[in-house]
Design goal:
single chain; alpha/beta; eight-stranded parallel sheet; two-stranded antiparallel ribbon; 10 strands; 39% helix; globular
Length: 284
């Protein structure tokens, strides 16, 4: 494999990343990005490289750091797609309004582009939660609403309670957990799928089929995983903070997998879930 490192300029300009309904299909995940010496620089560097989609969450406890990174960059706010999530304990009506408003304040922006229900658990009640989320759209706190970690039946239920269209559904998805039923349910309801942990927390690097495809194209397994998701219509928000990883993820936008590559990955039978809390709806 080549040791040459791509630069943002080699890979992407602000217009090169495919978008779905205005959302860049490749973004930067910020889970565990909580070091005050690292996080703002990583965010700013990512935006300078060409990233235009940043994903965070109340539970990540890094809104202020993410906001600092955005403020440091030269990228105009209107050119950035910014998403966050409300945690399970704050999904009652008043708590959701307060949590979302606080998130926007901590991020140092006027509004976010997308606000997710992080999990359908704890204080989540579809009627009350979506009443709050609809109001947050009406008040301009968020432009769009989304859900995360919903099972197909919960996704269908959510569409019945939300007055505003549910724009995106974020869930774990990668070649080792392909989530066909969840992807199909999202498509059925015209909801954009977004993959978190798209590299299976590094497990794709130890998967023979992925390594063979990566070797054939002289790229990393990370690029292969991200390219497969894109070809299957799934946006991705890989977590990264180092320059090398940020650049390598961007380089996936230049990778065109063959039909045989896609079929090989589609045929992987693993069902390796990396994020599996007891309150996950599939455990209920």
């Amino acid at each position: 494999m080549s040791d040459e490192k791509p630069t943002g300029a080699d890979v992407l300009t602000s217009d090169d990343c495919p978008r779905v309904d205005g959302m860049p299909m490749l973004g930067m995940g910020t889970w565990q990005l909580t070091d005050a010496e690292v996080a703002p620089t990583a965010i700013s560097d990512a935006l300078e490289m060409g990233y235009r989609h940043v994903d965070t969450a109340e539970a990540y406890d890094n809104h202020t750091l993410v906001g600092d990174g955005i403020a440091r960059s030269a990228v105009d706010r209107e050119d950035l797609f910014l998403a966050t999530k409300v945690w399970t304990s704050n999904l009652g009506y008043e708590d959701a309004i307060e949590a979302a408003t606080q998130a926007v304040d901590d991020l140092g922006v006027d509004s976010v582009d997308l606000l997710y229900v992080h999990w359908p658990a704890a204080a989540y009640d579809p009627e009350e939660t979506f009443q709050a989320f609809d109001q947050l759209v009406d008040e301009g706190v968020t432009d769009r609403i989304g859900v995360s970690n919903f099972e197909p039946d919960q996704l269908a239920e959510a569409t019945e309670y939300a007055d505003h269209d549910i724009f995106a559904h974020q869930f774990e998805c990668h070649p080792l957990l392909q989530q066909q039923a969840v992807r199909e349910a999202s498509e059925e309801h015209d909801i954009n799928p977004v993959a978190y942990s798209p590299l299976a927390r590094g497990e794709v690097f130890d998967t023979e089929a992925m390594s063979e495809i990566a070797s054939h194209h002289d790229v990393s397994e990370a690029r292969v995983s991200l390219a497969w998701l894109r070809e299957r219509g799934v946006s991705a928000i890989p977590k990264a903070s180092s320059t090398d990883h940020l650049q390598d993820n961007l380089a996936s936008l230049s990778l065109q997998l063959t039909d045989d590559d896609l079929e090989t990955i589609d045929g992987l039978s693993e069902n390796n879930r990396m994020v599996d809390p007891e309150f996950g709806p599939w455990n209920q």
